[in-house]
């Protein structure tokens, strides 16, 4: 029996009528992940977003634009490696997953994808030498198709509502280096903790956000990215170590407006309960800051490895590039079969 949220994603998918343009021929390399993101009014974030993933080898971006009015689509249209797909439908988190799955179905199964939000920057140990394609090939050789990551909420030293303008990577350099807990659930390897759990307890709402995600993955027919935090069916969710740090720049400029919009639209989990907790906490303390004695300055993925949040791939376990060629050949054989 399928969970209710899976049924909701499938129902949204049945109602979709938008067309998806497939990326350019470079996407034929099935070990080169196509990056998919859903955005609305994220023009200010896109330059840093694209630069981060290009530096790590991403060559194809599919941006699903859900009604931007700030010029995001026009800005992205000038980028040769970006395909913009407009979607004029009400936003809900289950609808978002259906839109993502429509793109995956159009481009094709049995290839690698990287699905991230505009405020997420995925890193991994060795990403100064290796690309996401290299990591995908490594996972192929390990027989694993869903790469686990952990959301690491980033923040600055001062009040959240007074976040300075400018690149978040430069102004939000702190993260919680302690206070995380890992557990097995029926769906995934779950990680809880971090600054949102620590600082936002107000209005009868105690936040306990899920921090695990599987943003780098390969699906077969019948498999769904039906939840932002895991895939369905669940079996493959338990195999991967946590290799990916998902630097989460949630608390940037314009935070108060984003909170108000999310509460009004009730389109996130549990009628945007998380955003109601933010609103209540800021009403109690407008100068709320996340910085505390356990904060650490982020400089590289090695910081996350040192804290025990990430593991480093055993890059030397597989001899490159010969094993990379073998992985490509094996993948081609699986697709043909």
Report on the architecture of this protein.
The chain is of the alpha/beta class. Helices cover 34% and strands 22% of the residues. It has one domain. The protein has helices at residues 4-15, 43-55, 72-77, 93-107, 132-142, 168-171, 194-199, 255-265, 269-284, 301-306, 322-336, and strands at 34-39, 60-65, 82-86, 112-115, 120-124, 146-153, 174-176, 180-184, 189-193, 201-202, 205-206, 212-218, 224-227, 230-232, 242-248, 295-297. Strand 8 (180-184) and strand 9 form a beta hairpin. It is globular, with a radius of gyration of 19 Å. It starts with a helix and ends with a helix. One of its GO terms (molecular function) is transferase activity. Keywords: Transferase.
Poorly predicted tracts of residues: none
Rg, rounded, reads 19 Å
Shape descriptor:
globular
Number of domains: 1
What's the SSE pattern?
A: HEHEHEHEEHEHEEEHEEEEEEHHEHH
Pfam families: Glyco_tranf_2_4
Organism: Marinihelvus fidelis
Keywords: Transferase
GO molecular function: transferase activity
Q: What are the defining features of this structure?
A:
337 residues, alpha/beta, eight-stranded mixed sheet, 11 helices, 16 strands
